[in-house]
User: Fold these one by one.
Assistant:
Number 1:
Amino acid sequence: MARAKISAPKGVSEYVPPRSRLFEFVRESLIAPARLAGYELMELPVFEDTELFKRGVGESTDVVSKEMYTFTDRGDRSITLRPEGTAGAMRAVIEHALDRGPLPVKLWYSGAFFRAERPQAGRYRQFYQVGIEAIGLDDPAIDAEVIAVADAGFKAIGLKKYRLEITSLGDAQSRAAHKVDLTKFISTLDLDEATSLRASMNPLRLFDDKRAQMRVVMSRAPLLMDYLSDASRRHFESVKTYLDALGVAYVLNPRMVRGLDYYTGTTFEFVHELLGSQSGIGGGGRYDGLMHELGGQELSGIGFGLGVDRALLAAEAEGVIALDGFASDLYIIPLGDAAMLRAMEIAMDLRKAGKSVEIAFGDRALKGAMKAADKSGVRFVVVIGDDEMLTSYVKLKNMSSGVTSSVKIASLADAL
């Protein structure tokens, strides 16, 4: 009796060939602008002490209260699979004293993150993000750079049908003044017990409530943007000036709060118009008190998390990405043992020259090997047999046009 197959857990985003080629392209495109701007790799653990996220992300958030994968390990410690990247990055900066060196500390990271959500298109329990953090200086120019790095990543993929929404969540003085009036407004509402509890922990959370009736109610609530202190207003105006100078288009969204409690000041989100309810493809903001909350200095920081899964879905929805753009350069079909040895040598030389080369292994017949080459979507094919080894020339076939040309083996790199 055959044993039952084991499937991946529900809600996991996983990528296998050939679509994994597109995933890799999207991820690398999102990372590249950060590297060019001087951000350095930080490789972080995928699980942390649960207290890190309770203190860093906020117990009033859905992430902490409903969505974390938390378990007790063999040492009776409470461990959580990381639901986001900033808290872990800040913990590492403090632990390794990176904040005691030159500032700002500029970091990038990528990998899998985990939230126990209801799976649907674009919303997964295991998902992938690229993130950056710039820690140590409260400078509006850095805010603009971080936003511009994210925008450059989406443009590198080829995305066009998205918008950048920005706001300011102000400083402590701004939020305190706003909280007084917001709390008064909320006290007039007839809320269920769970919503009341959430509002008591952080009244701003009600702006993030997705229920239609709550959206209508909160449309009348006082907006934090109207309570910004002079310093917060100047900072935010400077951010907009820098974005204008950089040619980064944006719209103001004064009702944005995002889903994490640590955000302060400049806050932003990228929204794609073709993704339906799961339209957010990335976002971030400044977090002035996070380092101190986690036991470090009173240093500010700003960062983002960009969804690789969502960005890929957006690219596919726009039609700006396709598998035929990621094919290997050359497929070599050797006829016989001697030809296989020569094919291996040719492939190695071409790979050293930066060309992607595959070989038809397994002593396939010519017809079967050509079918395999056609299915793999390679750009060019050559056959290596006795004549080719004798003359040092091959017939280079363009698989898209069907045109064949005679090329010297030593000149294959240039011909490709």
Note: The chain has two domains: 19-171+229-318, 327-415.
Number 2:
Amino acid sequence: MPDPTTPEDHLNDQPVDAAQVSPRMEDTPNSDIGDGLSNTAREGVAAFRENLGTAGVRLSEQDDFAELAGRLKAHRSQVAVRPPGPGVPEAVGWMFGVLVVHIIGMVVAVFGLLILQIAEITWQGGKPAGTDFQAMVVNLPETFALELMAIEMLVFLVSAVVATRLRLGPRTSHLLGIRSLEMSHVLLIAAVSIPISLMCGGFHQFTLSVWNEFFAHLPGMSVFDHLNVNESIKPLGRTAPLGLLFLVVAVAPAIGEEVIFRGIIGRGLVARHGILAGVIMTSVLFAAVHIHPAHVVALLPLAFFIHLVYLVTRSILAPMLLHLLNNSLAVVLLKATATVPALEGASEPEMPGYVLLISAGIVGLVGWTLWKSRVEYRTDDGERWNPGYPTVEMPPKSTGCALTMTGCSVGLRRGAIGLAGAYSLVFVVSLVLVLTGHISA
């Protein structure tokens, strides 16, 4: 009786791996493929033939294993593969989910700290009155600013990790590409972190000035004044310990935001809409969660570059590293601004145009070098592994693919690392001289 199904119905059927079949099969390529095999191998061959039949590939008892495997591979390459999600609607839902989780985290922090204060008053034998409770609520953002932010970010980080695991399933580490980085990529990312931070900082100054000039005075726009993350964390520069500030501002966002935006949202949008459109949409959604319009626009170049780093390295650790270094520089400048009066406003210094152009040029050079030295998975016969859609995921072990780096001259890598590193060193030395009072800001 003919099979009523279509080839697409059997898209997820998996043929028996050649490694699972007895090596004796290779000794009889032109004979009946079932002759001289063990029962296990014979069952494997039968399953392989059945898989071919259901996929719509004609076969006969005289066809050898290698030929059948090649025909199945050719057939599968001609059938459209449905890329993974999320699509655009779900991706937008994830973005709003991030905002909701941050709100929930803040509510948890507020109620938790209020309960602790009430418990402390009660423990001391007092009884909080209504006016005391109102005072606690009013003074909470100023008195416990760091604690509020720490609890909020902890709720977000835990939620992001759990949600990622639930969405991607047991192969989360393979789908995200959790693997070690090439040393040259680590050096390139480290070297470009300061130039791209300076470039985006100067761009933020420009977008903020445009906002203040043309939009800030419009009705209802004043609400954004209270939603500027850069402004809200400035008071923490004087009071918060450097280590805890580093964990809250740098580590937690680098992990939580990257697994959500690049790992989940970016994976689906790039797979379904291609690299260019997928990166643009992912970057816009990533920037949008930072609320303030000037900050949103200023973050787009950084978001594009972070996603580029993810695609070329095929490791989620790469965007996490760049995100971490970028935010860490913000923490250092925040503390420096709070402790050295001469550095007032140095978190976003007034930079001349040529500095921004040089920074952008170095970022472009490093980006090109990263792309030229991108890594790929290739099969034993040298073919690039391709599941049918753009992705950074790791192939199944059964494919036998190996990670290889595309051709990039050593001179280009060294030149990009050296130039970006020297530029960063000049910035660091200048900052140290300002902090020690040897030069003025």
Note: The chain has a mean pLDDT of 80.
Number 3:
Amino acid sequence: MIQRVIVVAAVLLLVQLALLANTFFGNRGEGEYRPGEPLLQFPAEAVDRVEISDDQGGRLVLTRGPAGWRMPNHFDAPADTAQVRALLDKLAALAGGQAVAATAEAAGRFKVATDDFRRHLLLSAGENELANLYVGTSPGFRQAHARLAAEAEIVTVALTTFDLETAMEQWLDKEQLKLAEEELVAVVAADFSLRRQEEKWHLAGLAGEERQNDEAVADLLLRIGGLTPQKVLDPAMAAPLFAAPADLHYTLVFADGRRREYRFVRLPEEEAFALQLSDRDLIYQVHRLPVEGLQKLNRQGLLAASGQADPGAGPVAGTGSEEQGGLLEAVPPQPAAPVGIAGGAEK
């Protein structure tokens, strides 16, 4: 008799727990999310708009167009396409664990409420919304609580707020200023000009015993081709800086006949320079060290020290000023790009 009472009580307890779970977690229909299955269920290749908002008022928009991914609310700056694709692939495969709660109070506590969240993610394809997700507090290493906007359940996912940064510089294409030496035929600065002839670079205007320092020339070309933007500056704020003479100015002549002028101005109270290019309307911020390195590589810095002359680097006919003029006259000048919202000129 006692055993029968225990069995009945146990059954009643299980029924009560089932009813409680149904009330707490809700009644989901057939085919909806289950633990371990993809949480968002969208085709990554279909996404053409990503919008991320944070709890500090930050907002990042990424849109996909013919030229790749860009940031329209950050002067249409180019985004790192590989980084965006990696995020979309990760989100498409994102699986959630067991629900940890499903109440409005818990949504606020775990920071996944509609009006109280750490991150809010929207994915779209044209006018169609593909995913709407709130990401909140972290229960463990590289994990976060998350909630689909249309659902009450709060689950744990392998995602962090660092994956969903809203700062423009975190998504900027850092390779957009990179150049290969083979793309160039000349570099013209205030006091020197370099020209590539038969796969070798020659410093113009060498006189007497002067010889160029090939290592310094290679360093110059490496620094020019390796510039990395830290971020894109507000043109309305940065453009006035270029009303004064630039701290560093040089011109590149490309093998296809294009010409690009670089103007650097030191940013007040920053360990950086502003960079303006003649064929783009974006103004970049670059770290001071590569620019200061370029400033040291003037004509004197490109000459070999006495006793270190390079016998293979003979002089190029003409003085430095004559060579500069000839190189620049050979390519029609390009008008400086207007300062404003970027239209997306590529390198």
Note: The first strand starts at residue 49 and ends at 54.
